């Protein structure tokens, strides 16, 4: 199931790029505790805020999409970190525990 989700997300990214859309790729690079998606999981986001895939099973997708939209404007990259030990834990829904680091980058 996870492999199919990854293939679907990456295929969607390619289709969006071929259609001339700006696309960002978010990749889980580190987890600790009860993070629901493994390292290497992807979320792709287009310039209109459409997305495919998952980096957290719904816990932080909204925050990642928001950051990706900003990065698509600037062309920058960013490492995001969410967890119960920081001030964003309750806002983005990782109250179950754990920590997740997600690297977000525009796709050329």
From TrEMBL:
Residue ranges of domain XdhC- CoxI in the record: 16-83
Top-rank taxon: Bacteria
Xref: Pfam families: XdhC_CoxI
InterPro entries for the chain: MoCofactor_Util/Proc, XdhC_CoxI
Name the record gives this protein: Predicted sulfurylase small subunit, molybdopterin cytosine dinucleotide biosynthesis
């Amino acid at each position: 199931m996870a492999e199919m989700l990854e293939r679907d997300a990456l295929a969607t990214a390619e289709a969006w790029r071929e259609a001339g859309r700006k696309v960002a790729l978010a990749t889980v690079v580190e987890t600790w505790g009860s993070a629901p998606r493994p390292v290497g999981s992807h979320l792709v986001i287009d310039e209109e805020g459409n997305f495919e895939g998952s980096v957290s099973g719904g816990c932080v997708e909204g925050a990642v999409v928001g950051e990706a939209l900003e990065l698509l404007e600037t062309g920058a990259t960013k490492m995001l970190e969410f967890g119960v030990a920081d001030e964003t834990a309750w806002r983005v829904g990782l109250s179950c525990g754990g920590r997740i680091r997600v690297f977000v980058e525009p796709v050329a």
